[in-house]
Specification:
It is elongated, with a radius of gyration of 22 Å. A hairpin with a 2-residue loop joins strand 6 and strand 7. Helix 1 packs antiparallel against helix 2. The chain starts with 6 loop residues before the first strand and ends with a strand. With 158 residues, the protein is of the alpha/beta class.
């Protein structure tokens, strides 16, 4: 049997997943069951699009429940290490500037379970994070992106 993939996450990310799981199991499941009951009352199920849509939604909810349970089961909590801000690592925020134009960006490197680029959280599996992990302040790094390679210089790790 293949080894289960660890899902790296912060304590905050674990709590969000636990809350989502609770919502899915208690509220969302009930909502879908009610939709199925209503759709069944419309009669012939062979041509009942409401019933088909509700069953599809039920399958999605159950799939998400299984996925979240698996992620929590294999969670590896990222411990905050405020004592060592010299190396980019999981759970750290890194600020860098693009070379040569000097545009600055900042991201926190988290596990894929809680990545959200719009909130400045990138997955440790992303090309950007993979290029930055293990690097130090002042290092210049080449990052391969879908739009081509870019050069960045790390200016802060927190």
């Amino acid at each position: 049997m293949p080894e289960e993939k660890q899902h790296f996450m912060t304590e905050e990310g674990r709590k969000k997943l636990e809350e989502e799981l609770e919502y899915l199991k208690t509220e969302r499941r009930q909502e879908v069951v009610e939709r199925i009951k209503v759709a069944r009352s419309f009669g012939d199920l062979s041509e009942n699009s409401e019933y088909d849509a509700a069953k599809d939604e039920q399958a999605f909810v159950e799939g998400r429940v299984s996925q979240v349970e698996q992620m929590l089961k294999n969670a590896a909590i990222i411990e905050e290490d405020t004592s060592n801000n010299s190396v980019v690592s999981l759970g750290k925020s890194v600020r860098f500037k693009e070379l040569p134009n000097g545009d600055e960006e900042s991201y926190t490197i988290v596990g894929s379970a809680e990545s959200d680029p719009l909130e400045g959280k990138i997955s440790n599996d992303s090309p950007m994070a993979q290029s930055l992990l293990g690097r130090q302040i002042g290092e210049q790094v080449t990052v391969s992106t879908p739009g081509g390679d870019i050069e960045v210089e790390i200016i802060e790790i927190a």
